[in-house]
Design a protein that fits this description.
A 10-stranded antiparallel beta sheet has the order 5-2-7-8-11-20-13-14-15-16, with no helix packed on it. The C terminus is likely disordered. A hairpin with a 5-residue loop joins strand 3 and strand 4. The chain is mostly beta strands. Helices cover about 5% and strands about 45% of the residues. It has 1 helix and 21 strands. The longest helix is centred in the C-terminal third of the chain and has 11 residues.
């Protein structure tokens, strides 16, 4: 069936599928030229499973194709299409836009864009994602942010109960990173109206905050289990909806990983990414060779 959408807009598509006498699959097709925009894996189990895929509209009409392999039956339910922020990793599980966020370039003429306009009703959200079940293992969160407000607010939060993962800023512009009862507060303020790369990490025995490639704060801490079978995630507001990020705060290049890079690797990423935040900057991979992408 066709879906009317906006050219160039990013969308998140959700669907529940289960196999009957045949396997189930789903594809997102551009109507004008029949180009494949995205597709789910083939689902072979009789157990209902939720799939999420993202795509960018290439025309005003996109077709959703539901398939049962061969001459058989498959079951589809809870289909939705909503504007979102795409996941550029191989997992493809992006965040939905709640309310009315604004997206604009980080600088005049630049390729890279950012999200802003946060409030208790304007934020990005993601339902349970098994890839964020870090347990007591190391993990890291990285993003770029620009703002000048003295308003405290939440940048990222996961879990509504148990040991909450939270990254926020206080009234003096210091990043606060917490996992359960343990937390660390950065000694460097970032609410100066310029772009900053922030990297927070839980490593073996410590919580760390790195700003612009330099380790600013590190504190010893016994890791707690942050897995939650019903955990949801938000960007730009806490899960209670009481501590949104200031409306002027721009966020981009947000990433979460079960990998914690070395301080040298973080500095190298900062040194290469900072050139994206200039007027007319083009987004491309730099360097003479690429050995890995993470």
């Amino acid at each position: 069936f066709p879906v009317t959408i906006s050219l160039g807009q990013a969308y998140i598509f959700d669907i529940d599928m289960r196999a009957g006498t045949a396997n189930a699959s789903c594809s997102i097709i551009n109507v004008s030229d029949s180009a494949l925009l995205a597709q789910t894996p083939t689902h072979t189990s009789a157990t209902k499973t939720k799939y999420r895929i993202g795509f960018v509209a290439r025309s005003a009409s996109t077709r959703i194709q539901l398939r049962a392999s061969g001459n058989g039956t498959a079951y589809f339910d809870n289909i939705s299409v909503a504007t979102g922020a795409l996941d550029m990793s191989n997992f493809g599980t992006g965040f939905l836009v709640n309310g009315a966020l604004t997206r604009s370039t980080v600088e005049s003429g630049a390729d890279l864009s950012s999200w802003w306009g946060w409030s208790s009703g304007n934020f990005l959200s993601q339902d349970f994602n098994a890839n964020l079940q870090f347990g007591t293992s190391p993990f890291s969160i990285c993003f770029w942010i620009k703002y000048s407000s003295a308003q405290p607010g939440t940048i990222f939060a996961r879990n509504s109960s148990g040991n909450v993962i939270s990254v926020s800023v206080n009234s003096t512009g210091n990043v606060v990173f917490s996992t359960g009862a343990g937390f660390v507060t950065c000694t460097t303020s970032i609410n100066d109206g310029v772009w900053h790369q922030v990297y927070v990490a839980r490593k073996a025995g410590s919580l760390e905050v790195v700003v612009d490639g330099n380790l600013r704060t590190s504190s010893s801490f016994v890791a707690v289990d942050v897995s939650n079978a019903s955990g949801i995630s938000r960007i730009g507001c806490d899960l209670a909806g009481t501590s949104p990020l200031s409306q002027d705060a721009q966020l981009t290049l947000f990433r979460i990983s079960a990998y914690t890079p070395s301080n040298y690797q973080i500095l190298k990423m900062f040194s290469e990414e900072k050139f994206l935040f200039q007027q007319n900057a083009k987004a491309f991979l730099s360097g003479n060779s690429i050995t890995s992408l993470s």
